[in-house]
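Incident review: delayed structure delivery

Summary: a single-chain prediction request sat in the queue longer than the usual turnaround. Root cause was a stuck worker, restarted by the on-call engineer. No data loss occurred. The affected request and its eventual output are reproduced below so the record is complete for anyone auditing the incident later.

Affected input:
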Amino acid sequence: MSNLSTFQPRRPGRHYPYIDRGAAIYVDSFATIRREADLSRVPVSAEKMAVRMIHGSGQVDLVGDLVVHPDLVPAARAALEAGAPVLCDATMVVKGVTRSRLPADNDVICTLNHPEVPALAEEWGTTRTAAAVSLWEPYLEGSVVAIGNAPTALFHLLEMLVDGAPRPAAIVGCPVGFIGAAESKQALEDFRVDHGIDIPFVTVRGRRGGSAMTSSALNALAQEQE
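Output delivered after worker restart:
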């Protein structure tokens, strides 16, 4: 392997026309989203969050599938400003969190690799991601939850809440996939009606979702600045 301490990189010749200034790319990206997406379909308070979620997915039609609780943004932002932890279902979601945007140096917690998880998953006959959610209980009260990968994690969280677990301040529930993803997000959307438990949330209907989309939403909730 080359020793980078002595390596002298060189810029290649320009063979393609493209914008290569980071600041310009950032500004133009958000301008394009605002020009092409119908942001009237989300609450005014959630507009910047929707823009960031579109930015994280590259899909301007995402806004048509977004479901945003009217209290999501103020509830999540107040919780984070008060120092609430962020609970993530996967390390990919953790990696997507921009720590400098967190207002109170908030803890960002993922219990997926906790040593108790494999045995719990085996005993309960469920996924490791779902079993890991049970280890959130000491941190759940007033937290901000970010689920971007595993539908079983979202189902498991909702079942915990039905059984009386402490309630988070807000849920970003955008697991991705073909098995259970759409159903778990529908369960989140219907949670208040089905169980009388009203927790502010954002989700995206259907199979779309993922860690980038989820961390993008969380970054927007953490700070007003776009």
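Verification: The first helix runs from residue 22 to 36.
Action items: add queue-age alerting; document worker restart procedure.
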